[in-house]
């Protein structure tokens, strides 16, 4: 678990921080957006309850840095009640939390690229980060298991048939059978460069 931010531009609803949570076994990633670091204990506790019910798994260990957003009485008491071991890294050594630190950088760089390529306004950075996280969970292959991160967590292949280009105003609704009949979903938009042999 790690917090990334603060971002230079707030989202429409005032979010400035990204809480990145990575499962150590599968590297499946969740992102939560926060207005301030003070929200972290509430969001972490709510996330842990949801994930244990939703995936029917027990969380046993949590690894974070020594930031006060993770090392505080609220979270300490919660971990004590539910039997979670909290491991912290040595101060000033982000290398010990390297999986989540790399994922932070990957998500932010992917979001920045998506925003620049789509010419979207910068306040949409949270949507870009969420989209990057969603697509990476369903497209990156864990080399040790030769499966996507989604497959390792949910035990089924992800459905990626509905993926669209980030920021696209329109897209084809058919499956490359007849690309001559594109149906836009927006009032304005144009496609350039679609070959009939490609999806």
From TrEMBL:
PANTHER family: RETROTRANSPOSON, UNCLASSIFIED-LIKE PROTEIN, TRANSPOSASE, PUTATIVE-RELATED. The lineage of its organism: Eukaryota, Viridiplantae, Streptophyta, Embryophyta, Tracheophyta. Residues 1-157 form the Integrase catalytic domain. Pfam families: rve. It comes from the Eukaryota. This is Integrase, catalytic region, zinc finger, CCHC-type containing protein.
């Amino acid at each position: 678990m790690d917090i990334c931010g603060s971002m230079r531009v707030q989202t429409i609803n005032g979010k400035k921080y990204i809480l990145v949570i990575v499962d150590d076994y599968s590297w499946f990633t969740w992102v939560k957006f926060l207005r301030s670091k003070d929200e972290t204990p509430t969001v972490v506790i709510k996330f842990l309850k949801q994930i244990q019910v939703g995936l029917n798994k027990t969380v046993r260990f949590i690894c974070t840095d020594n930031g006060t957003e993770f090392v505080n009485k609220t979270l300490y008491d919660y971990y004590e009640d539910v039997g979670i071991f909290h491991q912290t890294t040595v101060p000033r050594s982000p290398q010990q939390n390297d999986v989540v630190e790399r994922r932070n950088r990957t998500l932010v760089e992917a979001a920045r690229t998506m925003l620049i390529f789509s010419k979207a306004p910068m306040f949409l950075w949270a949507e870009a980060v969420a989209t990057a996280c969603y697509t990476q969970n369903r497209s990156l292959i864990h080399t040790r298991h030769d499966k996507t991160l989604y497959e390792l967590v949910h035990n089924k292949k992800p459905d990626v048939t509905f993926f669209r280009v980030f920021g696209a105003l329109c897209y084809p609704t058919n499956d490359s059978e007849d690309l001559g009949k594109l149906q836009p979903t927006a009032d304005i938009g144009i496609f350039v460069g679609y070959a009939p042999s490609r999806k």
